[in-house]
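sorry for the late reply, my laptop died twice this morning and i had to redo everyting from scratch. anyway the thing you sent over, i finally got around to it. pasting the sequence first so we're on the same page, its 160 residues, then the predicted structure underneath. double check i copied it right bc i was rushing
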Amino acid sequence: MALEWFELDLLSSGNPRSHPLWMDNWTEFVIELQSTFGPHNPVADTKNQLDHLQRLPDHIKDEICCVGKPCNLDDLRYLAQEINVHYWECKEEVQHANKSKSKPTTSSNANSSSGNANSSSSNKSKSSNGGNKSPNATSSNPNLAGKLGKDGKLTPEEKK
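ok and here's the structure:
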Protein backbone atom coordinates (compact mmCIF):
# COMPACT_ATOMS: atom_id res chain seq x y z
CA MET A 1 0.00 0.00 0.00
CA ALA A 2 2.82 2.42 0.87
CA LEU A 3 4.67 1.49 -2.31
CA GLU A 4 1.61 2.37 -4.36
CA TRP A 5 1.37 5.72 -2.56
CA PHE A 6 4.96 6.71 -3.31
CA GLU A 7 5.45 4.84 -6.58
CA LEU A 8 4.19 7.56 -8.94
CA ASP A 9 6.50 10.18 -7.47
CA LEU A 10 9.47 7.80 -7.37
CA LEU A 11 9.08 6.67 -10.98
CA SER A 12 8.28 10.05 -12.51
CA SER A 13 11.12 11.43 -14.59
CA GLY A 14 9.67 14.91 -14.86
CA ASN A 15 11.06 18.19 -13.65
CA PRO A 16 13.25 17.63 -10.53
CA ARG A 17 12.03 20.94 -9.10
CA SER A 18 8.44 19.75 -9.08
CA HIS A 19 9.05 16.55 -7.10
CA PRO A 20 7.93 16.43 -3.45
CA LEU A 21 10.21 17.60 -0.64
CA TRP A 22 10.31 14.15 0.94
CA MET A 23 12.24 12.75 -2.05
CA ASP A 24 15.37 14.70 -1.06
CA ASN A 25 15.07 14.62 2.71
CA TRP A 26 14.88 11.51 4.88
CA THR A 27 13.19 13.31 7.78
CA GLU A 28 10.50 14.67 5.45
CA PHE A 29 10.00 11.19 4.00
CA VAL A 30 9.46 9.73 7.49
CA ILE A 31 7.01 12.53 8.35
CA GLU A 32 5.08 11.89 5.11
CA LEU A 33 5.05 8.17 5.77
CA GLN A 34 3.81 8.55 9.34
CA SER A 35 1.19 11.15 8.52
CA THR A 36 -0.18 9.08 5.65
CA PHE A 37 0.03 5.59 7.15
CA GLY A 38 0.35 6.23 10.87
CA PRO A 39 -2.50 5.97 13.35
CA HIS A 40 -5.60 7.93 12.45
CA ASN A 41 -6.04 9.07 16.03
CA PRO A 42 -2.69 8.93 17.84
CA VAL A 43 -4.14 10.14 21.15
CA ALA A 44 -6.80 7.41 21.20
CA ASP A 45 -4.24 4.78 20.17
CA THR A 46 -1.90 5.81 23.00
CA LYS A 47 -4.76 5.74 25.51
CA ASN A 48 -5.69 2.26 24.29
CA GLN A 49 -2.11 1.05 24.69
CA LEU A 50 -1.90 2.53 28.19
CA ASP A 51 -5.21 0.86 29.07
CA HIS A 52 -3.72 -2.50 28.10
CA LEU A 53 -0.74 -1.78 30.35
CA GLN A 54 -3.08 -1.02 33.27
CA ARG A 55 -4.37 -4.58 32.94
CA LEU A 56 -0.92 -6.03 33.54
CA PRO A 57 -0.65 -8.73 36.21
CA ASP A 58 0.22 -7.49 39.68
CA HIS A 59 3.63 -9.19 39.73
CA ILE A 60 4.69 -7.09 36.72
CA LYS A 61 3.29 -3.84 38.14
CA ASP A 62 5.01 -4.48 41.49
CA GLU A 63 8.37 -5.05 39.84
CA ILE A 64 8.01 -1.95 37.64
CA CYS A 65 7.42 0.08 40.81
CA CYS A 66 10.66 -1.28 42.28
CA VAL A 67 12.76 -0.81 39.14
CA GLY A 68 11.32 2.50 37.95
CA LYS A 69 8.93 3.38 35.18
CA PRO A 70 10.51 3.85 31.73
CA CYS A 71 10.06 7.13 29.87
CA ASN A 72 8.31 5.78 26.77
CA LEU A 73 5.77 3.13 25.90
CA ASP A 74 8.12 0.88 23.93
CA ASP A 75 10.58 0.69 26.83
CA LEU A 76 7.71 -0.03 29.23
CA ARG A 77 6.45 -2.83 27.00
CA TYR A 78 9.96 -4.32 26.77
CA LEU A 79 10.44 -4.10 30.55
CA ALA A 80 7.08 -5.76 31.17
CA GLN A 81 8.02 -8.63 28.86
CA GLU A 82 11.38 -9.11 30.56
CA ILE A 83 9.78 -9.11 34.02
CA ASN A 84 7.17 -11.60 32.89
CA VAL A 85 9.78 -13.98 31.44
CA HIS A 86 11.81 -13.80 34.66
CA TYR A 87 8.70 -14.39 36.78
CA TRP A 88 7.74 -17.57 34.92
CA GLU A 89 11.33 -18.88 34.92
CA CYS A 90 11.47 -18.50 38.71
CA LYS A 91 8.06 -20.12 39.10
CA GLU A 92 9.20 -23.09 37.02
CA GLU A 93 12.37 -23.47 39.11
CA VAL A 94 10.33 -23.48 42.33
CA GLN A 95 7.98 -26.15 40.95
CA HIS A 96 10.94 -28.27 39.87
CA ALA A 97 12.54 -27.94 43.30
CA ASN A 98 9.28 -28.88 45.05
CA LYS A 99 8.87 -31.96 42.83
CA SER A 100 12.35 -33.20 43.64
CA LYS A 101 11.76 -32.71 47.40
CA SER A 102 8.42 -34.54 47.37
CA LYS A 103 9.74 -37.72 45.69
CA PRO A 104 10.42 -40.27 48.49
CA THR A 105 13.48 -42.47 48.35
CA THR A 106 13.06 -46.04 49.58
CA SER A 107 15.68 -48.55 50.62
CA SER A 108 14.30 -51.08 48.13
CA ASN A 109 15.04 -48.65 45.31
CA ALA A 110 18.55 -48.17 46.66
CA ASN A 111 19.14 -51.94 46.86
CA SER A 112 17.82 -52.61 43.37
CA SER A 113 19.82 -49.78 41.83
CA SER A 114 23.07 -50.74 43.54
CA GLY A 115 23.14 -54.22 42.01
CA ASN A 116 22.76 -57.85 43.10
CA ALA A 117 26.03 -57.97 45.02
CA ASN A 118 24.86 -55.46 47.59
CA SER A 119 21.41 -56.99 47.92
CA SER A 120 22.84 -60.50 48.53
CA SER A 121 25.14 -59.18 51.24
CA SER A 122 22.21 -57.40 52.90
CA ASN A 123 20.20 -60.63 52.78
CA LYS A 124 23.01 -62.46 54.59
CA SER A 125 23.10 -59.87 57.34
CA LYS A 126 19.31 -60.07 57.70
CA SER A 127 19.32 -63.85 58.02
CA SER A 128 22.16 -63.85 60.54
CA ASN A 129 20.38 -61.54 62.96
CA GLY A 130 16.89 -62.99 62.64
CA GLY A 131 15.63 -60.53 60.03
CA ASN A 132 16.11 -57.43 62.17
CA LYS A 133 17.04 -54.33 60.26
CA SER A 134 20.08 -53.37 62.29
CA PRO A 135 22.75 -55.70 63.62
CA ASN A 136 22.66 -54.02 67.07
CA ALA A 137 18.94 -54.74 67.48
CA THR A 138 19.51 -58.31 68.78
CA SER A 139 21.85 -57.21 71.56
CA SER A 140 19.37 -54.65 72.93
CA ASN A 141 16.32 -56.97 72.76
CA PRO A 142 16.43 -60.20 74.78
CA ASN A 143 15.53 -63.46 73.08
CA LEU A 144 11.88 -64.07 74.02
CA ALA A 145 11.37 -67.23 71.94
CA GLY A 146 11.64 -69.60 74.96
CA LYS A 147 9.37 -67.51 77.16
CA LEU A 148 6.42 -67.36 74.77
CA GLY A 149 4.14 -70.22 73.87
CA LYS A 150 2.82 -71.16 70.43
CA ASP A 151 -0.10 -68.77 70.91
CA GLY A 152 2.31 -65.84 71.51
CA LYS A 153 1.46 -65.53 75.22
CA LEU A 154 3.72 -66.12 78.19
CA THR A 155 4.22 -69.74 79.18
CA PRO A 156 2.83 -70.88 82.59
CA GLU A 157 6.37 -71.06 83.95
CA GLU A 158 7.06 -67.43 83.04
CA LYS A 159 3.81 -66.27 84.61
CA LYS A 160 5.13 -67.34 88.05
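The two ends are 111 Å apart (CA to CA).
thats about all i looked at so far, will dig more tmrw
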